[in-house]
């Protein structure tokens, strides 16, 4: 029997996350993103369908040049307005029992002492179902919202993240010993000898501790990451338990996965310590013809401006290039990359900005019958992918269709599980609620106790 794949819903508390323009469809309830019930109902639907997780992306500001007009983002609903997933997760936690709940938080946006406390609280509220997508930012405007002149240099962002996670690991893993909380009504509430200050002093942070919450079911949340550069891959190899990829083909996914797993081994971890989730969209129907016709309907709603703006194809004044612009006439770094990418697909004419949008909507979309979709997922799994991040066209319709029309066929083939395992998210994914001893955070267990300090 096949190994079941893992499934996350890849969402954001906003209107236009990945597939731009779809919010204009009559069945697009992502327009109701401000209503908490949109997300509670979706979380319940996902749990009913035995999804592993609901994963929330997030940003700290606007895309594009920080000094340029931002009209296009506002007009497209492109990640503005957007709400804070960390706050939203507590509402989802009390309305679900098994679903993993992943939040994205940038190392720049929150002091690690405060952030570690928020996450521990969420892990208590959810009985151990929280995951953290560690991001370092891509937006100058996002950096300016936190007092920086612009985004710090790329590799320096990862050095920052290294220190940031270090502080959180010390608080989550090292500050409280397991049995420190006693609540002995005839004696002490907790044992001071088992609660430790961490005395972190580093380049950016100085944190004395102790951690204020007592240990939560997972202590450290499940750690997600999505870097793709050299520094990003090294960071993932060292810290991540799950990595998000959007590879253009299973073969490229295989290369990326093998490279990251080999690097993880260099960091003293095992290849299976990291799970890989590929982002994909689906259009399903009973026949292939129907599925193709349905896909065409989605593609008609594609917003060229939305995809171009998300891909940073904007002129120096912040205006998106019109759809009919030839990519060779667009002088940005990202345009050069996209032109090269599109030249593999469009060989009989010059590629246009409009082609980019359509290609981005099509690539990474599997169109077909449930059987054809299951066949395609088997190919991704054979390339080393452990799970799929399901990217929606509409909320909740895309997830309803996945649950009702695709999952039954996947289950018949053993490609999707029928029931949840008990226990915290990490237990469900890896068989144990706490980080394994090969992870760098494990080094802080007992490190601040008297015995640890003199060891
Ligand atoms: C599937 C996926 C999801 C991502 N989600 C976010 C996000 O929610 N917020 C964010 O700031 N960056 C997000 N990123 C960007 C990554 O964190 C990272 O900055 C980007 O992939 C570039 O990698 P690099 O920093 O190693 O060059 C995401 C990337 C991918 C591939």
From TrEMBL:
It comes from the Bacteria. Residues 29-386 form the Luciferase-like domain. Keywords: Flavoprotein, FMN, Monooxygenase, Oxidoreductase. GO terms for molecular function: monooxygenase activity; oxidoreductase activity, acting on paired donors, with incorporation or reduction of molecular oxygen. Gene3D superfamilies: Luciferase-like domain. Belongs to the NtaA/SnaA/DszA monooxygenase family. This is LLM class flavin-dependent oxidoreductase. It comes from Galactobacter valiniphilus.
